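Narrative of activities, Objective 1.

The group set out to show that a structural description can be obtained from nothing but a protein's sequence at a throughput compatible with the screening campaign. Below is one input-output pair from the validation batch, recorded exactly as produced.
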Amino acid sequence: MSIPAAESLSHQKNDPTFADVWDEIVWRGLVHVSTDADELKELLAGRPITYYCGFDPTAASLHLGNLVQLLLLRRLQLAGHKPLGLIGGSTGLIGDPKPTAERTLNEASVVAEWAGYLREQVAKFLSFEGDNAARLVNNLDWTASLSAIEFLRDIGKHYRVGTMLKKDAVSTRLNSDEGISYTEFSYQILQGLDFRQLYLDHACLLQTGGSDQWGNLTSGVDLVKRAEGATVHAIGTPLVTNSDGRKFGKSEGNAIWLDPVLTSPYAMYQFWLNTDDADVVDRLKVFTFLTRAEIDALGAAHAAEPFKREGQKVVARLVTMLVHGSAATDAAMAATDALFGQGDLDALDAATLESALRELPNTTSPASTSIVQLLVDTGLSPSTSAARRSLGEGGVYLNNVKVDDENALLGASVLHGRMAVLRRGKKTLAGVFVE
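Output recorded for this entry:
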């Protein structure tokens, strides 16, 4: 799987108008829950510390929720702290408990392959130079040789079953028809083991993760306290949700993947372009390195003239560039303009055009198909009579050229010899692939 280079890290900076990085990440809304806030503020304002976040290879790519963690890791690194990116080679073989059902266990060879992909993706967002250079670790390195007896004697003895049963994901599953296996029940112990090992090996003092992982995060905090008598910390970030409050992620079936094969740069750009007005400022805070003053100015401009969607355009451009680089972002923006009649469709390369059309309703038809039939086949019109009416009203375009003849055929009006863009009105699009 191809992992393109991200935009250069050199332009990324924290906002110097904040007293310290804790104040900035709180303002950006990145702290949903944490251990002692006063202690964390003091810790992050002091000498450089080592901190980590874990990424389990339960899929072939990271997704939008993981991007929140990657950017938090980067913001703390910019403040002088030392990041550890943990790839869950062992925890990925199990998977943290879902609230709804038991996970399907993947083959070890598949998990190892996915771990390689995630390692490359995590590395794109951190700097591996300087005094606080990032390091990547894999928890399979310290669990593969661990015997069951060692696990139970050295780690398991520090856990209390009553406390484990109270974790949200565990209690939800226990009260469901599905129940929970001992395998998934033990996941929190493995994640706690990670924190203890990183504390011992790297003096790691902080773990970050999504707020839905809070039970697993505190598992490590508690284990280090019980086993080593030391105080460590955790930060849980808010979940990224859509307008109905449902989070984006692979378990929800609506993940926005960081890999361009799974979510194309065009689809990534469109996702951000369609951000709800109410969420624009929050997205700018979390997902961009714009300063407080720049975000406030954009927020004011957006509030005054929301129809211009300036905030959405900025967040779409900056986040797509962050994940996929300038060239892919420029291509996505050009495709967006061209598809909606504001640019040159002929100037789009075949790969960009195809990835864009695959995201739209589309159909595959011979060149002899009528435009009326294509409108119906793509769902742009509910019936042939409605399609003819749209043609008669002058609201149908093929490759941005108006079509008003109800007998018109697709014919030779194709791009790159095999694709066409069908549009009804200003914004309703579909793709046509020629057989």
